[in-house]
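Lecture notes, unit on protein representations.

Consider one protein chain, 135 amino acids long.
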Amino acid sequence: MEYDVLVLTASTIDLIIEMKGSFPILGGTSRCVKRSYPEPGGEGNMMIVCSRMGGKVLPAGPVANDWYGKFLLSSYCEEGIDIRCLKSVDDYETPVANCIVDENGTHTFVSRLGSYQFENDEELIKPLEKCRGLY
């Protein structure tokens, strides 16, 4: 087999937002943001860990043509992840999970997640034939 795992994915971004202060944030109050930055989210984390451990990962699914989509592709390439089965989709928007982290390390997610319908079985069968497992 050419790959260890085929990952069916609608690649997401975790937008990490580090805030000053702590939870809870009550209605009518505000907090300052110390810094914010994007990271591959969801199954992207698993793919990166697998690749760093020497595994060969093949993700399959949509990637948006927005800034986040380009960031994901670049991040995956930097980690040695084969992106040949990630399909650029014009009318698709990268799902974003805002991960708000307080000074104590407590976090919560506020998300706008989407979904994707694979168009045909061929999209999945051909890549799966090259992989030991499916995620």
